[in-house]
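Exercise: predict the fold of this chain.
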Amino acid sequence: MGALFCLLSAAGFGAMAVFGKLSYDAGVSVNALLLVRFGLAGAVLLAIALARGALRNLPRRAVFAGLGMGVFGYAAQAGLYFSALARIDASLVALILYVYPVLVMAGAVVLRRERASRRRVWALGLALGGIGLVLSGAATGRFDIVGALLALGAAIVYTGYILIGDRVDMSPLALAALVCSGAFGTFLLTGFVRGGTDLGFAPAGWLWLGALALVSTVAAILLFFAGMARVGPSVASILSILEPVVTVIAAAVVFGEVLTPIQWLGGALVLSAVLIVQWPSRPSAQAGHRPSTQAGRRSSAQAGRQTGAVARSALARVAALRFFGADDQAATHNSCACSAPKSPAA
């Protein structure tokens, strides 16, 4: 069931761009979409977090940190993502955004949280080459450089958001609820400054916004957490690579979006780079080798630290993604790189 939960989570995150475009077709503005999405998702996640006691005894500093990540980090990333979605095809937005796991890996190396390795250098090169091919032309119609830059900006902002989020120590559910609530506050204030947010769009708009908030945010996040608890972070992150594939296929079916052969190649390079980053490192011990008690304790402690970091970083996706690069050396800890949301993406 764990693998199924992860795949359903990836499908939910992957459908986000399609729900967003369908909302735009119903007359929903970017700000209205973000306001309703985070308002509804934040309320549901807060209710679940309170019911499960996830917010109980949280230090005030942690609460402010979670809200601040939503107010500044996730709100900026989501604003760039959905602004890009209003200008270019959903498939292009998904493939450009999906370079962020490799950017997170590169950022972790620069910040000396991880060591550089041949595998990571190859992944970075593949990702950059893939993005170059994806940006080489429009999927359908005229190429919009502003839209492409907005999507790339979303990936860059998301990279910083994840690297910061990895340092916030609280349960993933609590962080998801606080981040969504903080982002809601940002777009509520933005609408107020602009003279109000127009919610007088077609009834179909509310349907797609509900799907965006409940399916591609709340359900996708909770399914990812449930799946990761059963199959572990490495398997969960690999299964999450289905997300942009779902976006590309759904956009082709619903909107008739078609990638050029060069862009298909670029997308394949990007996904290959992510797979290289996410693939688990080879075990340090041979099969059947029984470690000493002291070594076993060290291994268990290290595994606990890795699991904790993964759980915190999964939230950084808030759509939580979900990407933790495994080092080539077994002694090196995993690093975040997010389904989630992812997610997402946005």
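Check your answer against the key: Strands lie at 324-325, 335-336.
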